[in-house]
Task: structure prediction
Amino acid sequence: INEFNESVGREKGIIVEGVNQGSVSKLTEAIIDSAQNKVGTDPVPNIFAAYADTAYQIDALGLVADLGQYLTDEEIGEYIPAYIDEGRLRADGKLKIFPTAKSTEIFMLNKTDWDRFSSATGASLDALSTIEGLVQTAEAYYNWTDAQTPGLPDDGKAFFGRDAFANYILIGSMQLGVELFSVEDGRITLQVDHDVMRRLWDNYYVPYVKGYYASYGKFRSDDLRTGDIAAYVGSTSGATYFPGEVTRADGSTYAIEGAVYPLPNFAGTQPMAVQQGAGMVVVKSTEERERAAVTFLKWLTAPEQNIAFALASGYLPVTRAANDVETLLQAAQDAEVEMTPVLRGTLEIGVEMSENYEFYTSRAFAQGYEARQVVENSMSGRAKTDRAAVEEAMAQGVDRDTALAPFLEDACFEGWLAEFNRALAQAALS
Result:
């Protein structure tokens, strides 16, 4: 912002002031409260960061400017088409979100612990390219770690964890042929397919309750830092948080090497990954202010600034010119930017995936946030609760197979699916 104000801003008479709300959720709450003129709120800012669901809510109040009127077709063509398309919230095609900070998901691995496991068991990195292979690998890792303590049966360690669980359901369902949230001009149709949900269940809930997967901290990078897992799927924007060492429960530490790989996919399907991240929304005001806001956003996302932002954050470039591995690495070298191997790998894999994977994001709709919360917490919360019950039973002397048995029955899945359907319909259609 300072750089803009002292250069293009000074030249054009535009001054930008930044305000931090602390978190995306707090920002969303503050923007909606301001838009609804609640007592004690500040005026809605000229520009604010938002995900599509929030932008859709504000747009429904008639407060969001159409950015397309300030951009030529040539200028719009400089951005990655899928990112532009996400910003067209409604059937009228008007551009309501300016792409700024986009990301996808990648597979991050504690390569140090993997090498020990692989050397001992012959486990192959190739298996990690599919979700089914990941499950099998996680089972082998549990058994291998369990065998390290022959006097303590059934104490194997989890191999894998996942951030943003809703993406697993939304992308997995789409990849398996069914779009969970089918949205047309803001109208939602829920498509919960029994067989698709069963495949998602078998490849997350089942390995979770068996102890092959785990989630303890706020993010899976926290769990990798404590050695509770050895790999996770997370956002490219989280690459800067990948730990450089593991701290055991007894306080001892050891350094680890990180490695990055493409997101695993279901076997036999077209590679697909989430397209996520906030963009910038411009509030309707005067033509002069709206044009000034777009001038700043164009400058902010021009290749020079866009590349610098990507190198520092792990977010993917939003412009075609910046979305090139050689360009990014050359820019890092020219600027003498030191990147960790994980951040470098993240940018390389992220750009590669943007070219070879189909990126997907569900369309915005009125109750999108509430519906996504159901998808985020339903299966993952059930898995965590049921795993705790298994561990409690084993602690009381019940053998592992007996403790697991009730959670592996078909009735367990069918019960969860009925509850999921009910909660999702209530959230999305009420």
Summary: The chain is about 45% helix and 10% strand. The mean pLDDT is 95.
